[in-house]
Amino acid sequence: ALTRRPYVIAGMVALVAMLPLALTSSDRAIRALGAPRWRFLHRLAYVAVAAVVLHYLWLVKSWTLEPLAYAAAAFVLLVLRVILRAGHGGRAALPPATCTPRKPIAGERP
Questions:
Q1: Angle between helical axes of 6-23 and 44-60 (0-180°, round to 10)
Q2: CA 85 to chain CA mean position, Å
Q3: Is CB count within 10 Å lower at the N or C end of the chain?
Q4: Is the distance from CB of 67 to CB of 60 less than 8 angstroms?
Q5: Is residue 79 packed enough to be buried (19+ CB in 10 Å), middle (13-18) or exposed (0-12)?
Q6: What is the DSSP string of 11-35?
Q7: pLDDT tens digits, 24-58
Q8: What is Dmax (Cα atoms) for the chain?
């Protein structure tokens, strides 16, 4: 049954790939995992992007402008990401803002 609807499998792969990313996007999760493991885990975003593109292309079952435009946009963004990382010795162009501790708000417990 699922082999007749491969877009369902691609959509589920994207969902499953994004679930750990959502669960580990807080400052607390970054501290618990450590930055290197957190960065490694968040590479699942690339798997999710590829699965989402396949999901959408298979879902619409036609090569119209809209799905091709989304696929092209995803491709361009991924290529830009690779180019930016290559120019910075394999590190992201900007450090993630979530890695810096924030100051507590007045009256808030640390």
A1: 150
A2: 16
A3: C
A4: yes
A5: exposed
A6: HHHHHHHHHHHHHT-SHHHHHHH-H
A7: 999 899 999 998 899 899 889 999 999 999 999 98
A8: 57
